[in-house]
Design a protein that fits this description.
CATH class of one domain: Alpha Beta
Structural class: alpha+beta
CATH architecture of one domain: 3-Layer(bab) Sandwich
Number of helices: 2
Largest sheet: 4 strands, antiparallel
Strand order of the largest sheet: 3-2-1-5
CATH topology of one domain: minor pseudopilin epsh fold
Number of strands: 8
Helix content: 25-40%
CATH superfamily of one domain: minor pseudopilin epsh domain
Distance between the termini: 102 Å
Order of helices and strands: HHEEEEEEEE
Shape: elongated
Length: 212
Amino acid sequence: MDVKLTSARALARGYHVTPFSKPVGTRAGQTRSDSKGTSLMDVLTTLAVASLLFGVGIPGFQHYLANSRLVSSTNLLSRSLALARSEAVKRGSHVVICKSRDQQTCTPAGSWRQGWIIFEDHLPDRQRDENESLIFAKSELPTAVNLNYSAFRSANFIAFRPTGITKTNGTFTLCYNEDANSARALILSKTGRVRFSRTRANGHPLHCPGEG
């Protein structure tokens, strides 16, 4: 059919006809595209930004993780001491918390980071016998968390009387990876109560376990 004739008839009937035209700026048989390629400069810029974020983000995350482990360990030890004291009062008996490697018996060697147990000490001889109930057991602390206990009496255990008091006072010191800036202390008084501190009982700076 003749295109001109068809257009004339369409106009006569009131229709608007747009003539065929090829896209501006293109050759015959080609279609215009708005997509652009990625340059080498774009790739290098992206890599530089990613490296910067990676370098800043990883140390920040490691610090957060270290602090989280240290806070968790400190809180658990504080709750353990409070539990030992409350159980002594509730049971009307001697209750001991001591460091333990196997989470069954008291261990005289090593540090407190290897774990501890709480048990009812009927004799009392500060050692757990087979007939003495185990109240709580904690396994080894997370890697790089340091824990030490210094006291005027034995540093291997703490014995609470039925009144909730203890014959000794001392200081638990916790650090992460022997970093003095992370040092914190739990200070135990003869009343059996524990308080948190960033210094020793005498106000002197804390030293991390393992420091020279």
